[in-house]
Amino acid sequence: MGGRVPRVFRNFNxxxxxxxxxxxxxxxxxxxxxxARLDAMADSPDIKEEVLRKDDRFLTLLKDVYVESRDPPVxxxxxxxxxxxxxxxxxxxxxxxxxxxLDVKKVPKxxxxxxxxxxxxxxxxxxxxxxxxxKIAAEYSLELKEVNSLLEFFIPFTVQEFxxxxxxxxxxxxxxxxx
Length: 179
Prior knowledge:
The chain is mainly alpha-helical. It has a domain at 91-153. It is built from eight helices and two strands; from the N terminus they run H-H-H-H-H-E-E-H-H-H. The chain has helices at residues 4-11, 14-23, 38-42, 45-52, 56-64, 114-126, 133-140, 144-153, and strands at 91-93, 106-108. A two-stranded antiparallel ribbon has the order 1-2. The radius of gyration is 42 Å and the shape is flat. It holds the Pfam family UPF0240. Belongs to the NDUFAF4 family. InterPro entries: NDUFAF4 (IPR009622). Residues 1-44 are annotated as: Disordered.
């Protein structure tokens, strides 16, 4: 209902309003800038002749110009660039178990791979007395503060399956038998 009322007022006397708008005097357009009339001047033969004429003085000056270019000597970069790290990062082999094909083989010290993170979170969840934060930090070469944050803020998902007898079943009345 709310959309019909404005539509009625909008469409009321539409033809008369449209004809009134069409019959109004059109405003005169603004005058064009003088540079827009260059196309008319370009058609004149005097301008064409001036454009196509060669100036001997300019040609002799152009012949006197000689440009010689040389490439700067190539510098060989030595291994100690500013943007390169001074020493090579220490790497450690990952502890993957049966998921070796899914993850990287070497990880920098102080970091863990995704598979390792999921493994250590799951181990801590299943056996928190054995897999303490200190043991995880020592095992994976991590800082204790980071391990505590990891164990506090990241929790692996658990899959729970409900037995069939506890599911709510829709009980309907007997279906009608066709005769």
